[in-house]
Amino acid sequence: MTVANPLLDFSGLPRFEAIRPEHVAPALDVLLAQAEAAVSAAEQVQPVTWQTFVAPLDDATERLWRAWGLVGHLQGVVNTPELREAYNSNLPRVTRFASALGQNLALYRQYQALAASTEAAGFDEARRKVLDNTLRDFRLGGAELDADAQQRFSAIKEELSALSAKFSQNVLDATDAWSLIVEDPARLAGVPDDVKAAARAAAEKDGKAGWKLTLQMPCYLPVQTWGEDRDLREILYRASAQRASEFGDDALDNGGNIDRILALRAELAALLGFDSYADYSVATKMASDPAEVLGFLRDLAARAKPFAAKDRAELEQFAREHLGIDSLQAWDLAFAADRLKQARYSYSEQEVKQYFTEPKVLGGLFSVIEQLYGLRVQEDSAPVWHEDVRFFRLVDAQGTLVGQFYLDLYAREGKRGGAWMDDCRNRRERADGSVQTPLVYLVCNFGRGADGKPATFSHNEVTTLFHEMGHGLHQLLTRIGELGVAGINGVEWDAVELPSQFMENFCWEWDHLQ
User: Fold this and answer.
1) Which of 221, 292, 386, 494 has the greatest count of CB atoms below 10 A from its CB?
2) 331 to each of 58, 99, 236, 430, how far by Cα in Å?
3) Under a CB-based contact definition with an 8 Å cutoff, are residues 421 and 465 in contact?
């Protein structure tokens, strides 16, 4: 039987084609009530065991976070005014629940009792790690604060959530709001044909003549790298650098949001007894303190700066002697660097890009996965949020399902910039012996193909795709059955980049490049 509200349907893959903004609040009414009931029961349960205490809590909260995760994901990839309103209006109640959960002293005591029990002495490494992380997070969540401090802590967390969402939305809106119609084809000299074709189509869609340039990366980067019109490069550079700032629409200015976020973070850290927000931040990371982080960065800078200065001097000399640019500006760097590579090494990224067609890149990526892990990537079908999205399954040598992933490669209006991996559903081993397989999103912002031709990627974009697939594999290949430490969960945020960096290396291996 199909559940009327798709956000309440956990029977299979998310029904993205059916989710509407009006589903959000009713689904949260149900899921928050279930989670709160589970919390109330957990506060009283005796004896405190994994199955009587942790498992029921995981059941209720997992459903809540999975549904809310779908809403957050859609807000990032197909943002609409209606969906944004549904997200923003429900964000405070979700944040309040999370804060209350982290400050729940009764639950904290129950977890302490479980950690001290004879059962816990026999836990495997995964469950011990879950317990350690949970006790730490209660302390960092304000469970040990007095009532007034807890109330202020919760208010800060709620305001920070709203400010973070507003910050991202302002950047998205400022990016989508800016465009430039170019009518003189001479101004687009050097810009690749596929980029010009896309710009022409965008202008025609708006009923305009000429070419529509935007701040989306598939347009912005090629103009910066290959566009010969220096004034045009400067216009786009300044527009990009000034997005959501005091130089644009006042309604989208993030300056006040930044100031407020910094002030609230400092206050939050002080409430918990930390000297700074940096001290609070590293409490869940590998670095021991901010001084260690700064020491690492300063040492890296000292080692790198002489080489950077040498490269800069060479680039400035080349720009003067060969490009007629006496004063190298920020909007000249990519252009001058590309010309220098062509002159010195006969290397043209635009020429190389033609070899990195989407079918070849995906085929190469999936081949690397098979060689490394003995796993095959197969095309699969699922409801998706946009026609661009493709869906795949990962199977082992016996054909057994390991996990599945969505691949959303192209930039578009209403989609947050950048590239990222996120989990839709984590791996979990249930008490009945069944296994919930992981499900992840892989999102990029590349240019689509034009005139019926497949998309082509720069080597940097290929590296980006391999990087995000590394995060995806971290999530997909986990063998841990506990939600709190499966995949990237529970991994220090300065360690989580290891699998992605590992996968990037194969973009430089000649056997794979061929």
Assistant:
1) 221
2) 50, 44, 8, 55
3) no
Residue that is last in its domain, among 86, 112, 144: 144
Q: 0.90 cut: is pTM over it?
A: yes
Give Rg (Cα) of the chain: 25
Summary count for the chain: helices (H), strands (E): 19, 9
**CATH number for the domain harbouring residue 377:** 1.10.1370.40
The answer to the question of residue 286 being in a domain is no
User: Tokens 């400010």 appear where?
Assistant: 163
In a domain, 292, yes or no: no
- Structure confidence at residue 1 as a pLDDT band (50, 70, 90): low
Give the tens place of pLDDT for each residue, 277-328: 999 999 999 999 999 999 999 999 999 999 999 999 999 999 999 999 999 9
pLDDT in tens, 40-91: 999 999 999 999 999 999 999 999 999 999 999 999 999 999 999 999 999 9
Q: Which of 461, 468, 482, 504 is catalytic?
A: 468
Q: How many residues does the chain have?
A: 514
Residue 164 maps to a domain = no
Instruction: Point out the domain boundary residue: 144, 176, 202.
Output: 144
C-alpha span between 230 and 336 (Å, rounded): 11
CB 164 within 8 A of CB 261: yes
- Range(s) of the domain holding residue 493: 358-513
Residue 79 forms part of a structural domain? yes
Residue 403's DSSP bridge partners are: 394
Cα(53)–Cα(42) distance, rounded to whole angstroms? Answer: 6
The CATH number of residue 110's host domain is 1.20.1050.40
468 catalytic per annotation = yes
